[in-house]
Amino acid sequence: PYCCSNSEIIAAFASFPKTTFIWKYEEENDAILFEKYPNIYTMKWVPQTDLLADHRLSLFITHAGMNSVLEAVFAGKPMVAIPLFVDQILNAKNMQSRGLGIMIDKHDLNRDSLIAAIRATLPVNSTYARKAAGVAKYLHGRPAAARAEISHWVKLVAEEGLLDHLVMRSREMSFITYYCIDIMVYLAIQYIIILFLLFKTVKFVFAQICRLMKLKAE
């Protein structure tokens, strides 16, 4: 799927001899390619969420599937995304636009582009790492904030009674009004009328043309 060989990816990883890379492989032959590189560990299966939660992990290189991106964001890890398909491309672009990592187009993937992306995102004090950690901190803080908010509203209702101004007006709407059925029926009728008039117009014009052709023939 890439426009570069595995050897270029290996060469990129080998450029960081003091950094340990964990490679999840699909085919047995893939594992053999990395045997000569002590800083690259190959695994057939990786407990991804556990690995992302490990404080020793500094960077996540991914295809940017939705689950993988969400897990990395929640774990506070910056990413280098190499998307292959449409949804992955969108996920990677969203991730990059929020400063959580770098996206590499699969057609631009080579040793140099991968090295540059890793160098920019790997340091623990990089802007990407700091941004990822900040987003994770916010996400981890939400449950406590949610409980505090629930407690706040329960106490307020107990003290003030029913808070009518917070009740959505849609509760008072009928089924037809809520789902805009009356509007859809009106538009459907207008559409039918337009089609009917168009049909009649075409029929009239066609009849006139046929009449003129008949008169010329006579």
From TrEMBL:
The protein's matches in SUPFAM superfamilies, at most eight in alphabetical order, are given as:
UDP-Glycosyltransferase/glycogen phosphorylase
Please tell me where this protein is predominantly located: membrane
Q: Which InterPro entries match?
A: UDP-glycosyltransferase, UDP_glucos_trans, UDP_glycos_trans_CS
Its record classes its membrane topology as: Single-pass membrane protein
Q: Which reaction does it catalyse?
A: glucuronate acceptor + UDP-alpha-D-glucuronate = acceptor beta-D-glucuronoside + UDP + H(+)
Molecular function as annotated in GO? glucuronosyltransferase activity
Q: Name one GO cellular component term.
A: membrane
State the Gene3D superfamilies in the record: Glycogen Phosphorylase B
Record's keyword annotation contains Transmembrane helix: yes
Q: Which PANTHER family match?
A: EG:EG0003.4 PROTEIN-RELATED, FI06409P-RELATED
Protein's recorded name: UDP-glucuronosyltransferase
Q: Which organism is it from?
A: Cylicostephanus goldi
